[in-house]
Write a structure and sequence with these properties.
Helices cover about 45% and strands about 15% of the residues. By secondary structure, the chain is an alpha/beta fold. The chain folds into 2 domains: about 5-45 and about 290-395, Alpha-Beta Complex (Aspartate Aminotransferase, domain 1); about 45-285, Type I PLP-dependent aspartate aminotransferase-like (Major domain) (Aspartate Aminotransferase, domain 2). It has a 7-stranded mixed sheet, sandwiched between helices. Strands 9-12-11 form a 3-stranded antiparallel sheet. Helix 6 packs across helix 7 and helix 6 (about 100-110) crosses helix 10 (about 255-265). It starts with a helix and ends with a helix. It binds 4'-deoxy-4'-aminopyridoxal-5'-phosphate. The site of 4'-deoxy-4'-aminopyridoxal-5'-phosphate has 13 residues, from helix 6.
Length: about 400
């Protein structure tokens, strides 16, 4: 059978995730130190796991409301109000989803007509461009640059706005750069959204993981923004709950309703077990992740110092748990660097090109890894960089 012709054009034309391709190389190699996967090295805090175990023991194995447990939506409303100074009605403005991944997909599918343009920034999490395309939108990429510590410049956003622009999609702190937004730049982007009557989708998945005493500020907090913003958040990163697949969207009620229509037909509801665990996570709040956050900050300091020490320029990112060193001084592409490092030293990092063309020349290292392994990985990377440079010198 000619399967190519059977697969929808939209899907056939989608690129495969560069991360996935790279990880096929790592699977089945227990000797490898991985700075590759973007998830916490620790399991979910015990109290959260215990709440889920208790709920299973009680036989809580049913569907929930399509919207998610009401108790969880109330807890989300309180948490979001505290974190983002913005009040959402648990009955009409909050939807519990299967991770931020589903929430993002719902937001694009609920709002885009074919040909609508979405401005998003690269380097970024691999799913943005494809999620926009799958919703028949047109991804319009705006580059963030190392000279701005990978913040998004409002002037660059403004240049990308056309009469077809419908949405600006933001993710700060950013995967893969760890970049954050100066509030004054964010304010300018908010003003552009208002001026051009645009929606803003803000993926806040790393908002709790900020360092050096910084306070997070979301675009939704600026005057006039709640009515045009869909706030996407979840439990995967701060609460170390990637495998539970739990997230949520907060949105003005007509948009929440539109997202809910898709969710009820394709997902029905998020798993009840995960929702109960999420409720316990929010009950614990900051106390569940503050120790992890502090330890990430120490690891960030360690890895940034080591990378700069070996001559791979690396800015000190303000959030998330990634560093994005510049590897151009080695003369290798990001893929050559990552494959060479993996094959010769058994250390996995992700080529920056996997996060969009502006990521080329960089690699992503996730430092949510035990400090002794970070030290070992850095020793091996330093050996690799020294050997590459020596080779280059010999060739020249
Ligand atoms: N957004 C960003 C920026 C991410 O990095 C990730 C996961 N790596 C997601 C969304 C998806 O998160 P979830 O586990 O909640 O689906």
């Amino acid at each position: 059978m000619d399967y190519e012709s059977k697969i929808s054009k939209q899907i056939r034309d989608l690129p495969r995730s560069g991360i996935r391709d790279f990880f096929e190389l790592v699977i089945g190699r227990p000797d490898v130190i991985s700075l590759g996967v973007g998830e916490p090295d620790k399991p979910t805090p015990w109290a959260i796991r215990e709440a889920a175990i208790r709920s299973l023991e009680k036989g809580q194995t049913s569907y929930t409301s399509n919207l998610g447990l009401e108790s969880l939506r109330i807890a989300i409303s309180d948490y979001v109000e505290n974190q983002f100074k913005t009040k959402y009605d648990p009955k009409t403005e909050i939807l519990v989803t299967v991770g931020v991944s589903e929430a993002l997909d719902l937001a694009f599918r609920a709002c885009l007509n074919p040909g609508d343009e979405v401005i998003y920034h690269e380097p970024c999490y691999v799913s943005y461009g494809p999620s926009i395309s799958m919703a028949y939108g047109v991804p319009v990429m705006v580059e963030t640059r190392e000279e701005n510590e990978f913040a998004l410049m409002a002037a660059d956003v403004e240049k990308a706005i056309t009469p077809r622009t419908k949405v600006i999609a933001l993710n700060f702190p950013t995967n893969p750069t760890g970049g954050i937004m100066p509030p004054e730049e964010l304010e300018k982007i908010a003003a552009l959204a208002i001026k051009h009557d645009l929606l803003v989708f803000t993926d806040e998945i790393y908002c709790e993981l900020l360092y050096d005493g910084r306070q997070h500020k979301s675009i939704v907090e600026f005057p006039g923004m709640k009515e045009r913003t869909i706030l996407l958040h979840g439990f995967s990163k701060a609460f170390a709950m990637t495998g539970w697949r739990l997230g949520y969207a907060c949105a003005p009620s007509p948009l929440r309703e539109a997202m809910m229509k898709i969710h009820q037909y394709c997902m029905l509801c998020a798993p009840i077990l995960s929702q109960v665990a999420g409720l316990e996570a929010l009950r614990l709040g900051k106390s569940a992740f503050e120790d992890m956050r502090v330890s990430y900050e120490e690891r960030r300091n360690l890895i940034v110092e080591r990378l700069n020490g070996m001559g791979l320029h690396c800015f000190n990112p303000g959030g998330a748990f990634y560093v994005f060193p510049d590897i151009r001084s080695t003369g290798l592409t990001s893929k050559e660097f990552a494959i060479g490092l993996l094959e010769s030293k058994g250390v996995a990092v992700v080529p920056g090109g996997a996060f969009g063309s502006p990521g080329e020349g960089f690699v992503r290292c996730c430092y949510a890894t035990a400090p002794d392994l970070i030290v070992k990985a850095m020793d091996l990377m330093e050996e690799f960089v020294t050997e590459v440079r020596a080779g280059k010198r010999a060739a020249a």
